[in-house]
Input
Amino acid sequence: MKTTIPKEELIYSGHLACQGCGATLAMRYTLKALGKNTVYTIPACCWSVIDGPFPYTSLQIPLFHTAFETAASMASGIQAGFAIRGKGDINVVAWAGDGGTVDIGIQALSGVVERGDNVLYICYDNEAYMNTGIQRSGSTPVGAWTTTTPPPHFKKVPKKDMVAIMVAHHIPYTATGNIAYPEDWIKKVNKAKEIVGPKYLQILASCPPGWKHSSEISIEVVRLATSTRKWPLYEVEHGKYNFTRTTKKFVPVSEFLKLQGRFRHLTEEEIDVIQLLVEEHWADLCAKAGIENQFADKLEEYTEKVKKNHPKWFHIEED
Amino acid sequence: MRKVITGNHAVSYAAKIARSEVVAAYPITPQTQVVEKISSFCADGEMDAIFIKVESEHSACAACIGASAAGARAFTATSSQGLALMHEMLHWAANARTPIVIANINRAMGPPWSIWTDQNDSLSQRDTGWIHYYCEGNQDVLDSIIQAFKVSETVSVPSLVVLDAFFLSHTSEPVDLPDQKLVDKFLPKYEAKWKLDPKEPHTYGGLTGPDRYYELRYNLQKDFLRVEKVMDKVHQEFKELFGREYGRVEPFMADDAEILLVVSGTISSTAKQAVVEAREAGLKLGSLKIRVFRPFPFDLVKKYLKGKKAIAVIDRNYSFGGEGIFYSEVKSAMYDDPHLPIYSYIAGLGGRDVAVKDILAIANLAKEGKCDHPTWWGVKL
Amino acid sequence: MAEKYEIKISGAKDMPPMAASLGKMLVNKTGSWRNIRPLVIPEKCNGCSLCWKFCPDFCINIDGDYPIINYDYCKGCGVCAHECPTGAIIMEEEIK
Output
């Protein structure tokens, strides 16, 4: 049968991921792009457990488990160790969850990128501390339930924009990805691995237990994140923005939200806030990419809607 | 070649001569000259190493572990708050069995801010599974770092080489820089048996249940017990190649001493002078320097303390709610000798000077059996 | 448990100095996790390979004309059946 992505697997079945795990697909696709000449370091996250217990492993490439905040700094040391021994061609990857990237790991990541170390940093983003039982992280989106943001205290502050933070560090290459679009992701990983310097990629990965949806819609749900433009697919090369996937069709973000139990408590006005955030982000990206915003009317529509009727916790400039 | 250099620069030269390949360091007083000199060695091409200018000490230790796991010889230097910040990763290095070497300038922990010498920073890390060397002089510092790499790489246990803030770090002494060819013979290129290698992939540090973790720790301690024999051999080899003798402890006029001081760091040096003066005044005083604190030299402490009239342990540290740390360990070593009086004297915390007269006074207290269990020598109440 | 992948460690002397992997997770037959199992209807398959592409346990073999599920590892997540555009995979109750 014909395939649109490389056929070889660099990962074994029998791993401990939940049914329908997005993080595992993220790993699988990434390894297909990187190939055997790769070394990973993984901090505390779902993948610390998915890989399996000593003395077994599910990865076919070397892996060094590391402490929570050290994915980036450990990778920095590993690549230096290889470089000084003439093995600088080995792909050195820091593979971390969102918690270990945007919260506890952000200092080390910032250091690596600022220094210009030759490390590929990949954040698989399931939008909460899933390994420890679904606690909120700096990457949890507005509106989401987690065990530490139970309604009415659901998360009301925005998700950290790591790509923007990376761009502010003048990173050579950064991009977003989605497990529902493996071809797009593999292209980006391939591009990143050819660059000498720091690279940051962030792939959205669904999580049935954490997002509260049944396992069989794992791909359908995360696909909607991109088709509703909540999680656009784009890349930034030396400050130059480029969409790798775009759309003209308006799919309301409610299509994405309604499939997940973690957004079940949201009122219509709260969903409108989320739609507004989607439009604002999209408009900002269009401006940066130098393309016309096909949804400018939606930005206007939702700005007016939310101004008229918004929850107290949402800040919007009154006229 | 002899050079008059500070303790800090002795550290830098040692890192260079030992052919460290990756140095990941963050500045902290009073260590900064260590990394500045290493930076200039790298910039001048004198040192073939990659210097990662990390953004914190926690990252420094992590990067050194990563470099070592990749198969390279890794080194860094730090002090007090920085060492404390590394704490989590010190455990990681030991348990991952990466033989990195860290030079620590003994500096008091804050608050309040203090930059002066005190052993609490390094001794707080005694349970992390590292070999500890406490240096007396700048030659000792340089030589210990070179030896530490050899011992560490033989047993796969990391080493902490400790030197006093300002008394060594910023004090110039004549130091012999050993011949590079001889050092290369003594300390060949690091060849890791277990490392990150795409040609032979392994996962390191995977989740381990109670059914296996226990044995991994048993194996770490088993290798710690090997350290003593390995060190004795390394010291012998070092003596043959470089002509300088080192031990896990250093006795000074200890054999026929009636009162024996147990000391470490630069206090050992001052104590030697005190011993000479005491002897001239008719007191049979001797000293035992503990150079290697981990693994604790129980065998040698038993050997040298046996039969003495009294022991005075001088601690430049304190385990609050407990005792002086060297004192606890010495007492533990002498458990089978319950009648031997062992007295605890705390001195010099936060960099307070411990002079010859202080040590003589302490020795006299011990001679008279006077101790407040412990005595905080010189405390102004 | 797939015996052929089992690594026997009797004690301290069999262990590497640190927790280094010696074997593959293929030892763990995750097929035992299933409550429902995918069933392939070969006549309906159009050879798109989407099932293989999206399987989080990579236990679908597409070397032939239609997918073959490796039931030793299939956790019964249902993604393959849901993503299949022609209904060539259906989920049915697991027979224990």
Summary: Chain A has a mean pLDDT of 97. The first strand of chain A starts at residue 38 and ends at 42. The longest helix of chain A spans residues 268-289.
